[in-house]
């Protein structure tokens, strides 16, 4: 075991626990448990908001899988990764102020609350809860595998023990701290990612003898590595561009991101978060993927992509620095997992149980359910991750694409298009998910249809379905202010 | 029927700005990456050691977006209240 690497990581984990514990103290004195546990009481400031979005979004695939693929593919994959810069500003600008205002009017705490109030439909709620639970499960499993692999490669523990260690650390503080703990630790973890990637990039460049030198080595090995077309020349412009939907603009439809867009305090926090988020996202993505490419001449012949970053960090940095730097992917994975865990449990407790099973549950029951469900979910994911499939990044992207195809139009058009109704929303989600799954298997068997990523077509189809069904069945303009009159009458 | 909430007009305009920025971002990224990148490798030039298509598309492109987002947020985005209470005093 490599103690000089492990100690900084353990110190890092302890700090994270401490923050979780501290937030749970705040939670205990809270008057509105649900809003606080699942949303942090809508008072995030600009910096925390930006960081929690980046940290939630930046996951095992940005820190392990992505750079690992860049190592194999060369600069074409860095180009692809940079499509993610758009998420830094796009999500907050598109959902933006209208979402923040409507979420408050509806008193919405989760994305499903918003959909429920907007479309006033049980089918919409159950369909969304179901797709969140199913798709985010596969996303979570992918993250847990990444986390366990990382611990495995650092400690030499067996995969099973590493997974166990990881599961315990995550579960403890998600169950105690809730959203505020997750958002706050995200901010710390985001800062760790930012600094960690910069240190590692510099170390890799120095160890490779400068950028020009590295470039020459890459060209000598395979000139395709420095083109936008990938090592085999098979990354087409259409395919890479379709990632603008998958990891760029489509991110608007991801529930774990969308819920953050209703958690900020005021317009000033949002404005700050826009700028910080853009800078931090771009910086981290650029650094991590460049590290992946630059690692190739320094450490040739790594065959498991997920191991590139841990190995190159151990190679180029003094052990204790490597420990701090490797806390970055650990942070990314943990912060993604916590938010997913919290989201899935909020779908079960809040959106299904409280809405349909027992609307009059006492606060005590709700609390016990929230902690209990979060814990049980953790155990189930743990069991699933024990025997994991190999391709981390694609498992993760499967969940991404499916959720985007399901939710992007019901959210975005629900906000801005008054003709959107529940029939459109149901059709859109159904079409999105069904066509995504069908196309996924078609593409595996026959190669990508039209040469673009699986997500592209379902997003288009679900748009058509949303518009067509909204206009064809019981067409009626939605009044965004109607809820105000209702509230006034009650008052 | 009340007239549209003034905050919604602000929100709608800002959403369009977001869409515009993303479109601009895409065009910049695509034009440099594939405009410069489809030459034979021998013809690439290198800026700070990086291939020119990558430097302009990803590094300059990223910096341009940071500047644009900052300018847009500072000068075109409006601070609006999110809660209804402030609204009723109007």
UniProtKB/TrEMBL annotation, chain A:
Protein name stated in the entry: Sodium/pantothenate symporter
TM region positions: 6-23, 44-64, 70-95, 124-145, 157-179, 191-215, 235-254, 274-299, 319-344, 365-386, 392-416, 423-444, 450-473
Coiled-coil regions, chain positions: none
Record GO cellular component, one term: plasma membrane
Membrane topology reported for the UniProt record: Multi-pass membrane protein
UniProt cross-references to CDD domains, sorted A to Z: SLC5sbd_PanF
Source taxonomy: Bacteria, Bacillati, Bacillota, Bacilli, Bacillales
Family statement: Belongs to the sodium:solute symporter (SSF) (TC 2.A.21) family.
GO biological process: sodium ion export across plasma membrane
Protein's UniProt keywords contain Ribonucleoprotein: no
Domain of life: Bacteria
Annotated signal sequence range: none
From TrEMBL, chain B:
TM spans (from-to): 15-34, 54-77
Keyword annotations: Membrane, Transmembrane, Transmembrane helix
Pfam families: DUF997
Transmembrane helix among keywords: yes
InterPro entries listed in its UniProt record: DUF997 (IPR010398)
Full protein name: Putative membrane protein YhdT
Native source species: Planococcus citreus
